Amino acid sequence: MNIQIFGKSKSFDTKKAERWFKERGIRFQSIDLVKYGMSRGEFDSVKRAVGSLDALIDPKAKGAAALQYLAYEADKEEKLLEEPALFCAPIVRNGKQATVGYQPEVWERWAKE
71 vs 3, 56, 62, 90, 98, CA distance in Å? Predict the structure, then answer.
């Protein structure tokens, strides 16, 4: 397993996800989403894995409501990449697979593969 956790330092779910992997002795790389963001390649891979752009947007994030007024998906993607605080956290990647939010049942399946 090659786990990356894109999270926010003040996110309770990010802390829970990190603890979940630590308790099972699974090594992971932690990336501060707000500070470092996500590369275009990482973003495209995660978007493909989760199935939609909307799944990546945190509806509670300041400024997220403005995204609904952007007409094109490409504009929404650019805004997300420019303002990574709008991402929902945590985003957990395992190669080409990814989850958004706290999803231990999926991570459990990954650990068994």
Answer: 34, 17, 19, 26, 26
CB 46 within 8 A of CB 21: no
Q: How far is CA 73 from CA 6, 34, 49, 64, 102, in A?
A: 22, 21, 17, 14, 25
CB count within 10 Å of CB 99 equals 21
DSSP letters for 32-75: EHHHH---HHHHHHHHHHHS-SGGGB-TTSTTHHHHTT-SSHHH
pLDDT tens for the chain, 113 residues long, are 899 999 999 899 999 999 999 999 999 999 999 999 999 999 999 999 999 999 999 998 988 888 888 889 999 999 999 999 999 999 999 999 999 999 999 999 999 88
| Global pTM exceeds 0.85 | yes
Rg (CA), the chain: 14
